[in-house]
## 1
Amino acid sequence: MSYAYKLNEDVRHQPQGPQGRAATEPPMIYTIVQHMPIESDGRLRYRIKCKSEKIERVVTEDQLSYSQ
């Protein structure tokens, strides 16, 4: 299984609300800073850093899309 996004690539992160519901916050632009190990559930995870704030998150690939 390979990662869809490369290191230092800009991506759009769509936050999720409680229990996976759609969040009301707009998507923000982040930069991929690390590929995380593949977890036992098989989902790919990334460490991302916000471009406008000093926030880092670990997210799954399904929460990301290409920045435009």
## 2
Amino acid sequence: MKPRIVIPTVAPEAYQALMNLENYIATTSLTKTHKELIKIRASQINGCAFCINMHTADARKHGETEQRIYLISAWREADVYTEEEKAILALTEEVTLISNHVSEETYQNAAKLFDEKYLAEIILAIITINSWNRFAITTGLRAV
């Protein structure tokens, strides 16, 4: 692949704005498990090898099991996720595939399981990883 634009060099203020959102997500009450499930699933859907590699490694560091990591893409058929985790994965999928919109059922299921602040943090985490996926894929970041 030919070298592509290096946004942190060319547009450091814009890159910092995205980093500020990431730094905010790091301070939220979201559990490490919830954050990594969101990051891995969105990255799988978007085909971002760089982010899948990074976030599966991060999940392992935080104690996530290999089995749960391997089953994320087939979470509906796996009995290793909690009701809350399944709601987060469903919302992650629908926000990531936004052209299909977020169904009322998926949204209301998440809304009944989480308070408004936690739900807002989930949505912002999904939006943030989708931004990073697009950043990495467009600029040609590679998994190593």
## 3
Amino acid sequence: MTATGLSGRSVFLVEDEVMIRMMVADMLEELGYKVAAEAGDITEAMRLAQATEFDIAILDVNVNGKVISPVADLIKAKGCPFIFATGYGSSGLPEQYRDRPAIQKPFQLDALGRTIEAALRGD
């Protein structure tokens, strides 16, 4: 399965669970996306969000017990789209970002592809 017309875009991935991060990175590559950077904690994510060029970000909502909001704020300021990955549903999203796209963990390849495509199109 490949992302229609949007493959080749780059993704910044923030996920604290190493195995989940590896699995999502593999899924992204299978969909035709390039992983621009990966982070497993908030400090690293903040640094990479500032220093890396990417087309979209996938942000775990809870990174080692810390809410992802500071990273989302940086990415929003860059004018870059992002989606949240969460096991808590939309009620687990930071309040100021409840209007943003979210994908419920665990997710399948096709759901990930659809969510990324919609966010890149601005749906």
## 4
Amino acid sequence: MIVAFSVTPLGVGEDVGEYVADAVRVVRESGLPNRTDAMFTSIEGEWDEVMDVVRRAVAVVEARAPRVSVVLKADIRPGVTDGLTSKVETVERHLSA
């Protein structure tokens, strides 16, 4: 499965990059395939391991912020591996045609 999620601290002012970096650090240290862009971090793996990483990423922000907003989207497709890369490669192949 692939989960794209964002964690936003609320009540800490406009500059939230430090808080977001804490959450992304948890994802990167998990060892699961992941990618971060300007809006979301995507992570790939089995349900329990992915959701545990999301939970820990939220917790690290929650420990420092009075309120946390989480947006999450999941692509649950059994039997698919390396979807994080292959989905992008498919789009790029179509763009270059």
